[in-house]
Amino acid sequence: MQRRELAQALRTAHRDLATTLRFDERAVPMCRTPHLTLLFGVEKLAGCPEDELHGQLHLFADRLEALHAQLAVVLALDATAPAEPLRVALLSDERTARRVARTWCGGVEMQGLGTIDVERGVAVLSATRAHGTDAALHGVLAHVLARLVLGRLVTPRQRDELGYGFLDAGLAHWCEMRCAGRAENFCVLDRLERPREYHGGDSGRAARGLLDRTALPSLERLLVTGCSDFDFADHAPRSRWSST
Fold this sequence. Notes:
Blueprint: H1 2-21, E1 30-32, E2 36-41, H2 53-74, E3 86-91, H3 94-104, E4 114-117, E5 121-125, H4 128-131, H5 134-153, H6 156-160, H7 164-180, E6 187-188, E7 191-192, H8 203-212, H9 219-223, H10 232-241
Parallel strand pairs: 2-3, 3-5
Antiparallel strand pairs: 1-2, 4-5, 4-7, 6-7
């Protein structure tokens, strides 16, 4: 009975959201896990083990929940502390994505391919060319989830201080590598940009190559540089160093 009541409450919330934002709830299903609310409306996803939208929804929800469990260990999260579920929206329709971004991300307009509000949630516009494969989609969701989880631990004032950008983006890259085998996503001022295959997506090999050429950025430099001011050379070592 309790499970039925929870399912009915979620369904009602989904219908209300679909009515408010004017989208077809059948084309954009939603599910809830212990730590996430996932809104999932994706088209043309290649290479996914699940063919149907509903199966893909639950597959990615399970993947994100598993990553959250890994981050809980890495960041020593208090599993007993109550917390609102992290809200993640992944949508192929641009109009719907923009409406969800304004609703879930504190009224902030979407720019690039997504908007992240570390205190509220993230809305990602799924572009076929950028996220059209199962692996690419897994990577970008791992990236944004890491930023959301870390955002719960670091206060807005601390985020404005130099040094946290290295940890913020570095942890996101580390999660990308674990989930998708490559790191190609990045954010500028909490706006998700189009994936860029810097250093072939292999941060470890890139860091070794930079080290061999004595071109590896120093940790001291990274810690005093704002996150949005990193260049591509900075992306390689931070995904390695931030995980140690």
